[in-house]
Amino acid sequence: MKNFTFENPVKIVFGKDTIAQLPQLLSKNEKIMLTFGGGSAKKNGVYDQVVKALEGYDYTEFWGIEANPRFETLMKGVEAARKENVTFLLAIGGGSVIDGTKFISKAIKYNGDEYELLTNRKIITEYTPLATIVTLAATGSEMNNGAVITVERTHEKLVMSGDFPKFSILDPEILYSLPKFQIACGIIDTFIHTLEQYLTKTGQSRLMDRWAEGILQSLVEIAPELMKPEPSYDAMADFMLSATMALNGFISMGIEEDWVTHMIGHEITAYTNLTHGVTLAIVMPRVMEVLKEEKGDKILQYGERVWGITSGTLEERIHNTIACTREFFESLDIRTSLSGNDIPESVSGKIVERWRSRKWKLGENRNVDADLVRIILDKCK
Amino acid sequence: MKNFTFENPVKIVFGKDTIAQLPQLLSKNEKIMLTFGGGSAKKNGVYDQVVKALEGYDYTEFWGIEANPRFETLMKGVEAARKENVTFLLAIGGGSVIDGTKFISKAIKYNGDEYELLTNRKIITEYTPLATIVTLAATGSEMNNGAVITVERTHEKLVMSGDFPKFSILDPEILYSLPKFQIACGIIDTFIHTLEQYLTKTGQSRLMDRWAEGILQSLVEIAPELMKPEPSYDAMADFMLSATMALNGFISMGIEEDWVTHMIGHEITAYTNLTHGVTLAIVMPRVMEVLKEEKGDKILQYGERVWGITSGTLEERIHNTIACTREFFESLDIRTSLSGNDIPESVSGKIVERWRSRKWKLGENRNVDADLVRIILDKCK
To answer: What is the residue-averaged pLDDT of chain B?
Structure first.
């Protein structure tokens, strides 16, 4: 096990009707800006619950943070917050709204070129505190300090670190209004966040392995229930909890992490706007295939513990494990190829080119360079 | 899943040579009191490491917090801290030193009768901040806000809630100096903390079940290695991590908990001073046996996933699972009966009497009354 430091100060308020607890969590002395996506919060009743809970509070609203939140959009939020002297941000939405709000929180008090907050990790700014109400289980952003921001002008999807939310409210009942496509993408996003932290080498930490496998096993068990028209509350609650636990540091103590699938997936989205979860479902099985030499032992362990694959040659077991993974994503009505999602072949070339020009060598062994990405993307066709 | 609130602000600094990071964690403006147990910190080199790291700091020392830390001893620490105007407490030891320091932290600024801090949960005091350096993996106290304090005068072992440590330093290499008896008790304490949160009813949260089982499976796997003269660093690290993760709230989100074994174990220790881990190893198998009706489904799941018990009648599987649990404790050279530890029979009578006089009804179903405790203790003979 590697040395590590762990700290996660986010307060989680989880369960039915928990939005009503807002007054116990928020001071009336704050000048609050609520941040939203495109309008689903008004359809699913969340907006009304928030307005009711915030009676007597001083707040303004900022609407329109899109999926894959854009720097250009968020800067309007930053300007609005500055103008209104906002002291507290409350993000109400999924990962995009929360990530976007983390950027706003980081930018409000920054005097320089805000684009640099996405490219220069050394800049230290004073955060404006934020909290979240989660309406989509997927990214885990509600319990970490990371964010992914798209820059439209440059077709970049950039990873930024910001502040942890002060608290996050998670009511599984809100998830009932989501289209099944978003549930499917949330399951896949959670599954692959876990694999990114798990699928490296064996023998680093038995406990972290078990906890990662615990999330994977839970998702495999509840996915069929979640895809039904009316999933049970307990399945929805375990889904929402799993999504939060998959990216809050709890399963990555003292171990190596990969994240190549995410980096390739971000690139696909940056050029095509294809939904994040779909890009991951396309890329992950091919990353496993291309890197099966170095990840083989862990793939075998994953195949045995999550999919019950224990017979056949090692080669066959690895092959079957990758097939199970892909079939799982397909069982959620997600197409796991680029062509199946109408992505033109030219996109792969652009990704490889940028990977080469930036001299990226990623993955736990820092060996996934442009040539390997070419091979991975060719298999994604 | 039940509604729940989760928050754990403790910063964990984990790994080799991490005591040297103290200067990055502690301000030189504090007036610090270091708290210790009986002297092992001087033998195992921890004291020297701390003194070196704290060069230039203003600190005093308080020695002599015993196993099952006593109110009477701790009050001397409170008085010393008041006299020296201490602003920060650094506990260096195992669960007893940490628990005791949580009491000191709670009592320093309290003007009333400090005994009431152990009996009246409604009293609010201003905590003096504390941090820990862990020298014994077992109680998980380094990452929670609970403490158990013994009152010598009344033969009581009382559970108190206090402050979370600001940070906890965990260096697995420190554990190499521990006698195997303490390693064994640490494994058992961790195992039973997990069972207390897990062994209630099925179907509350798949994820929390998997995470609890992950700790149990890890402990079963590494225990033989830990009992060797020179365990591997990775096994020691997984042991230390498991102990911390078993009682920090990570495996108890949204679920019912039991804690009857601990309550009976605390009573045994209060009357006899028998080591905490040993009392748990005696009591838990009998709690499972006596409550097998209501805990049966979960015992079956535990038996299958942790011990691989899948054949036989349900009754046989439950029987074998309890036997495996007891044999596991015995394999660590712990005797799992009261007589095997020279505890006189009269002790059981005193425990039942106090249980009856306080009208306790404990466990997840609030049905473990004095009569049931009598039956459990009779089986412990």
So the answer is: 97
Question: How far is B39 from B37, CA to CA, in rounded Å?
Answer: 6
Report chain B's terminal Cα–Cα distance, integer Å: 38
Do A218 and A240 form a contact (C-beta atoms < 8 A)? no
Please list, in sequence order, all residues whose beta carbon lies within 8 angstroms of the beta carbon of residue A329, skipping any fewer than 6 positions away.
A188, A281, A285, A336
The domains found in chain B, sorted by start residue, are: 11-173 (3.40.50.1970), 180-379 (1.20.1090.10)
User: Could you tell me which chain A residue has the CA closest to the CA of B215?
Assistant: A207
CB B340 within 8 A of CB B319: no
What backbone torsions phi and psi does residue A227 show, to the nearest 5 degrees?
-85, -5
Sign of the CA dihedral with B326 first, then B331, B332, and B336 last: positive
Residue bearing tokens 């968020």: A74
Condensed to tens digits (0 to 9), the pLDDT of residues B26-48 reads: 999 999 999 999 988 999 899 99
Hey, are the CB atoms on B218 and A210 less than 8 Å from each other?
yes
pLDDT for res A16: 98
Report the pLDDT value the prediction gives residue B150, as an integer from 0 to 100: 94
Q: Check: CB of residue A54 under 8 Å from CB of residue A22.
A: yes
The answer to whether the beta carbons of residues A138 and A247 sit under 8 Å apart is: no
pLDDT of residue A334: 98
Residue B264's contacts (CB-CB under 8 Å, 6 or more residues apart) are B279, B283, B287, B351, B373, B376, B377
How far is it, in rounded angstroms, from Cα A110 to Cα A112?
A: 6
Instruction: Look at residue B221 in the predicted model and tell me its pLDDT.
Output: 98
Which H or E run includes B148? strand B146-151
Q: Cα–Cα distance between B220 and B214 in angstroms, integer?
A: 10
CA distances from A369 to A140, A262, A362 (A): 28, 14, 7
Could you say which residues of chain A have pLDDT below 50?
none
Could you give the maximum distance between any two Cα atoms of chain A, in Å? 67
**pTM of structure:** 0.97
Cα atoms found within 13 Å of the Cα of residue B319, Cβ hemisphere only:
6
pLDDT at residue A67, rounded to an integer: 93
Mutate to test the interface with A, among B164, B198, B210 (most CBs of A within 10 A): B210
Work out the pLDDT band at B343, boundaries 50, 70, 90. very high
Complex ipTM over 0.90: yes
Closest by Cα among B9, B168, B192 to B94: B168
Read off the pLDDT of each residue in B245-254 and give the average, rounded to a whole number: 98
Alpha-carbon distance of B115 to B107, in angstroms, equals 9
Mapping DSSP to helix (H, G, I), strand (E, B) and coil, where does residue A253 land? coil
Strand locations in chain A, DSSP E? 4-6, 11-14, 31-35, 58-62, 88-93, 130-134, 146-151, 156-161, 167-170
Name the CA radius of gyration of chain B, rounded: 20
Q: Report yes or no: B157 and B148 within 8 Å, Cβ to Cβ.
A: yes
Q: Which residues on chain B place their C-beta less than 8 Å from a C-beta of chain A?
A: 1-16, 18, 172, 203-208, 210-211, 213-215, 217-218, 221-222, 233-234, 237-238, 241-242, 245, 250, 253-254
CA dist A171 and A191 (Å) reads 20
Return all residues near B152 (Cβ < 8 A) that are at least 6 apart: B70, B71, B72
